[in-house]
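step: validate -> pass
step: tokenize input -> pass
step: predict -> running
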Amino acid sequence: MENYLRKSGDKVYRNNYINRLIQLFTVPRIRRATLASFTVMLAQQLCGINVLSFYSSTLFQEAFHSDTAALLASWGFGLINFVFALPSVRLIDKYGRRLLLLCTFPHMAWCMAAAAFSFYISDGNNTPAHNGCIALFIYLFAAFYSPGEGPVPFTYSAEAFPIHHREIGMSFSVATNLFWAGVLTLVFPHLKDDLGPTGALGLFAGFNIVALVMIFLWVPETAQRTLEELDYICE
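step: predict -> pass
step: emit ->
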């Protein structure tokens, strides 16, 4: 371990910031860590959680036709997000990052699809079935998201890179996440206007499947691996 840290320190000393940034895409071991970290960060935006976080009040207002009910439903969404994230403190190391993602994304996909099609339930009289189904499936989506794709991307990106590229790698990963969050913030209102809430949420249900495939192909397990083992996995 001491030799590994000493070599890592030497590499940081010899490489400036620009060189290390370029090496994220040119050195095979680091490039694979970059791809895996990019994938889990992008998946956080593809799954639609930030769309629901940013525009949950708007979606619930269209569902409930009541500002007060929409605000209460949005508060419940945030509460579920918080409560179901707590088990990940133990699960993320016990079962691993990759397994949590592969187990939760299929459920996130069907929950998002179910929430989308729930808008088709007749709401002529603001029926309980219409309101309840939309809220139920959005809440279930949040419950599956919180222990998996919620904490995993930042944990994964913080450990996937070798020490001499961890700072620049983590910076790139977070920048990727926030860039696509900004894109979704600007694009989603137009998607909802053009496709309606059913079409917009249905699109993100499909994105969940795309993210699941990307994770299966490009995200190796990093839980309980030493620095040397991670070098071997990503070679």
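step: describe -> Residues 95 and 223 are 8 Å apart (CA to CA).
step: cleanup -> pass
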